[in-house]
Each structure stands twice: as structure tokens, then as C-alpha cells.
């Protein structure tokens, strides 16, 4: 009888623990913003978090090609960063609610877009400041053999290349 009573009490205790709500954090519900101007200003945007966190501690790291700088708080300013830099911006947000903590981390590479005067995510598709090269073939009518050697005269009975076209004379 004691064993049955003990088993029932344990099951009731486990069920009670399972019904307690666990804090809900969502790292994909937070983001950060940047501000144009001299240096780099960053800030955490928590407007997408569903629950009210007890505390949020934010640690920032911003690196350019030569140095890394750190800051903390919901907003941080990095005066050492120039708009000509490609920077890596990272944050760790330590969010606490009801004695539970979640750490949200994110890193992005940014470049400054001179057309819109904003910091944008760096990817191969949105590189700013590099114009596409236009290749124009100019060989001045030179003649080449099939091995790519330059010739001084048109060979008879052999294939040759002139102005990117293949020829043969008889």
C-alpha cells in the first residue's frame, strides 16, 4: 500500500512539474539596427519578443580589417569604424526571464552603401564600389597558329586564327 501511495505521489509531482510554463524566448524575434554617419552605431531591436524579459544584457563586437572593438548595452557606438571599412558585427544577447536564461548570438558582415548612405549586408550579390569589367578583344589583326603563337604572315595550307576566327588557306 505504501508503494502504491508513493508511486501516485511521484506521478502527481511529475505531472505538476510538466504543467509549469517554461519561458519562451525566440532568438529569431530579435534583430539589430545600424545608423549611418561618422563611425558605426548599433542597437538591439527586441520589439518582436513575445514575453517581457526580466533582463537583457548585450555584448557587441565589431571588427574591421585590422582591429576588433567591443561594447555593451542595448546601444553601442564604435567611432573607430569608417564608412570605407567592411565590418563584421556580432552580438550576444543574454535574455533572462523567470530564472531561465537564453543566449542569442549573431554575426554579419556589413559594407557601407554610398548610394543609400546605409550599412548593408555584405554578399557577393550586393557588393558596392566595384564596377563590372567589360572585356574588349583587341589584337590589331594579329595572326596566330593553333598553339597560340603569333605569326608574321598567313601560312599556306594550315589553319590559323585572326580576329577570333579560324581560317585555312589553300
Briefly say what this structure is.
By secondary structure, the protein is mostly beta strands. The protein has one helix at residues 2-19, and strands at residues 31-35, 40-45, 55-63, 68-72, 75-78, 87-97, 100-113, 118-121, 143-144, 150-151, 159-162, 165-168. The radius of gyration is 32 Å and the shape is elongated.
Overview of this structure, please?
It is a single chain. By secondary structure, this protein is mostly beta strands. The strands form 3 sheets. The chain has a 5-stranded antiparallel sheet with strand order 4-3-6-7-8, with no helix packed on it. A 4-stranded antiparallel sheet has the order 10-9-11-12, with no helix packed on it. It has 1 helix and 12 strands; from the N terminus they run αββββββββββββ.
Element layout with pairings:
Layout: H1 2-19, E1 31-35, E2 40-45, E3 55-63, E4 68-72, E5 75-78, E6 87-97, E7 100-113, E8 118-121, E9 143-144, E10 150-151, E11 159-162, E12 165-168
Antiparallel strand pairs: 1-2, 2-5, 3-4, 3-6, 6-7, 7-8, 9-10, 9-11, 11-12
Low-pLDDT stretches:
16-20
Discrete helix count: 1
- Largest beta sheet: what is the strand line-up? 4-3-6-7-8
Largest sheet: 5 strands, antiparallel
Defining key terms:
single chain, 170 residues, mainly beta, 1 helix, 41% strand
